[in-house]
Amino acid sequence: MSKNQPEARERRGVRNTHNVISIIFLSLVALMGLSLSIVLLIKNATLQRQEEAALSELDALNAEGFYTEAEANKLIETATLEAEENTRNSIKQMIQEKLENGDGATSAIRSLFPEQMVVASSGRYYFFPITDNIEHHGFLETDFEVGEDGFLEYVGDDSTVEVKKGVDVSRFQGNIDWEKVAAAGVDFAIVRAGLRGTTEGKLLTDDCFKDNVEGATENGIDVGVYFYSQALNEEEAKEEVQIILDQIEPYKITYPVVIDIESAESDSARTANMTTQEYEAVARTFCDTVRNAGYTPMIYGNVKSFTLLMNAENVDDYGIWIAYYGLPLYYPYHFDIWQFTSSGRVDGIDGDVDLNICLTDYTHE
Fold this sequence. Notes:
By secondary structure, this protein is α/β, with parallel strands linked by helices. The chain folds into two domains: 69-112; 139-364, Glycosidases (TIM Barrel), CATH 3.20.20. It has eight helices and 13 strands. The protein has helices at residues 5-63, 69-100, 104-112, 178-183, 209-218, 234-248, 276-292, 305-309, and strands at residues 116-121, 124-129, 144-146, 152-154, 164-169, 188-196, 203-205, 222-228, 257-260, 297-302, 319-323, 337-344, 353-358. Strands 5-6-8-9-10-11-12-13 form an eight-stranded mixed beta barrel. It has a two-stranded antiparallel ribbon with strand order 1-2. The protein is elongated, with a radius of gyration of 44 Å. The termini are far apart. Mean pLDDT is 86; it is low at 1-14.
């Protein structure tokens, strides 16, 4: 046998092996391709089912009245414009109704800003945020109503609220029949002790002070006193207090001794250019001097007094006598006396007189 035969067989065996490996490799590639095709077919079928489900859900949403994002945004825009227009019309209607009812422009404007105190002065409007740093009175708009005798009555639910009826008087009321005033149910009277002139600053006592204090006291009416101040500084405030102390020394004064702080509404008034700090200094000096003399101090003023002239928070240490005519009271903070009209009528007093209610019992202090 030729010695080349084994080598030939070996070469044929190698070739056969290579052929088998190639067949196996191609079979594996074909199997992998088939598997990938099956996976792709399954995934495609899944995606098709998901697409069909999404389309079905969208059809259901549309059938139930749902909208696309673009349609929803358009609807929101339209609704916003309609709401703004309705709000404008509502505000215009409200203002029109208030003006037609005679409430005035200030009242209409105030109703638009419930979180602020709105004050009109010299053709301008001023806005003061309502703070919680001062105690609020807490009364509802419906807690008071005018009774048959012309005085305010408390009709709220708080059984601890006790209302006293009072008047404040000066020489402008002339001779007063205090017996009739007492019979009319008046509990207290705040009598003017004097005033300081608005231009020259001259100090004056009230002509009817003595008659009024004695007449009220003799008929069982509790008495307090007030002074119309135009003091420019602490020294003048002490002068005003001294005039009061000299006058009330012989009498039993059970109600407060009050400083009346109001703007004179005149360019020639000596207080026309006073700052808030100066007004507050006058008020505090007056009240501290009164307290040191053994009497109860109080500040009288209107909404303007406790916003433009003084910061209510800075004079909150004293009694407050608020002047506001009409219901409901447009003053959010605590008060002791409320002067609610300047055109009241009381038997025993000729003509108009200021009417007040007091919520603090000064007779048992």
